[in-house]
Design goal:
- The protein is built from eight helices and three strands; from the N terminus they run H-H-H-H-H-H-H-E-E-H-E.
- It has a three-stranded mixed sheet with strand order 1-2-3.
- With about 300 residues, the chain is mainly alpha-helical.
Length: about 300
């Protein structure tokens, strides 16, 4: 399962890099032909896409490496580090595009837009390629839960609006000579980029700070443990996310009179059930006798649930 997820994540990363390379080349040529700031905004965005996609691909490859002596829990945190870097790059690009748009709007100078038809064709091709890439990335995320692929998909999905806006700006310039629409569209694109960057940053930061899983995930885990045959209660249910991997730790309360082999069988079956419900997760189950009192030197126990 983990190998399949790794292959899917790598395929999404390679597709992202390939699409970004094509879009950068097309938009660089289109900007040279049109001189439209909205096209420049989408060019800068695609250039950032290429940089972060390369970083994301490296992170996916590194995160897919199995655990070793120095990294007993694997390398999945590399995905969160890459997503954090992505958000900072995107935020910087948004600032540069927004500043350029404001300067052009404030100058009052006529916009030097030309060859609108050429630019429109390039943008239509860009939209088609982006839609195809996002569709594949969404499919991969549904199978693997990769945070890097999800962040990349969100970013490319956000690219659609700036591209559509740039199309509208070129059309307004060609039809009515409204060159300032170009700067307004670029400013809107910069705002959307900044908002997306903040969302990616928060998700990656939460994962790096070992924030627990979503409430519905925790409740789903609790429901499985609570209803498991032979389990009389549980406590100290803890979760954290690292990249696309979910870590689960739980203490279950068993009949202390049963044999070690019987207790092991209950715990092992429960672990398999949790792995089926949350594929690719890392599950650790500790077994306690029902009603045992914690030793004074033991860490304080969490809330017991039944």
């Amino acid at each position: 399962m983990e190998r399949e997820s790794g292959r899917l994540n790598l395929s999404a990363g390679l597709a992202s890099v390939g699409v970004a390379l094509v879009l950068v080349a097309l938009k660089l040529w289109a900007y040279g032909e049109t001189r439209a700031l909205s096209v420049a905004a989408t060019l800068a965005d695609s250039a950032m896409d290429l940089m972060v996609s390369l970083g994301g691909l490296a992170a996916i490859w590194y995160a897919a490496r199995p655990a070793d002596e120095d990294h007993n829990f694997g390398h999945s945190a590399a995905e969160d580090l890459a997503a954090l870097g992505q958000s900072l790059f995107i935020l910087a690009a948004a600032g540069a595009i927004g500043a350029g748009a404001l300067m052009r709007l404030g100058s009052g100078a006529p916009s030097p837009i030309a060859a609108e038809g050429t630019g429109a064709v390039v943008l239509l091709v860009s939209i088609a390629l982006t839609l195809a890439l996002v569709a594949w990335q969404r499919r991969v995320v549904a199978r693997t839960g990769s945070r890097v692929v999800a962040a990349d998909s969100l970013h490319y999905l956000g690219d659609l609006l700036p591209n559509i806006g740039a199309l509208a700006a070129l059309w307004a310039s060609a039809r009515w000579g409204l060159g300032q629409v170009d700067s307004v569209v670029a400013l809107g694109a910069a705002l959307l980029l900044a908002l997306g960057a903040v969302r990616i940053f928060r998700a990656a930061w939460d994962a790096l700070m070992d924030r627990q899983a979503a409430p519905e995930v925790i409740e789903g885990i609790a429901e499985i443990v609570r209803g498991w045959e032979g389990v009389h209660g549980f406590h100290d249910l803890k979760t954290r996310l690292s990249g696309s991997r979910l870590f689960i730790v739980v203490h279950i309360e068993l009949d202390g009179r049963q044999s070690l082999e019987e207790a092991h069988a209950i715990g092992a079956a429960l672990r398999r059930a949790l792995l089926r419900a949350y594929p690719g997760s890392d599950v650790l189950i500790h077994k306690d006798p029902v009603g045992v009192k914690p030793h004074p030197e033991d860490p304080s126990r969490g809330i017991s649930r039944r």
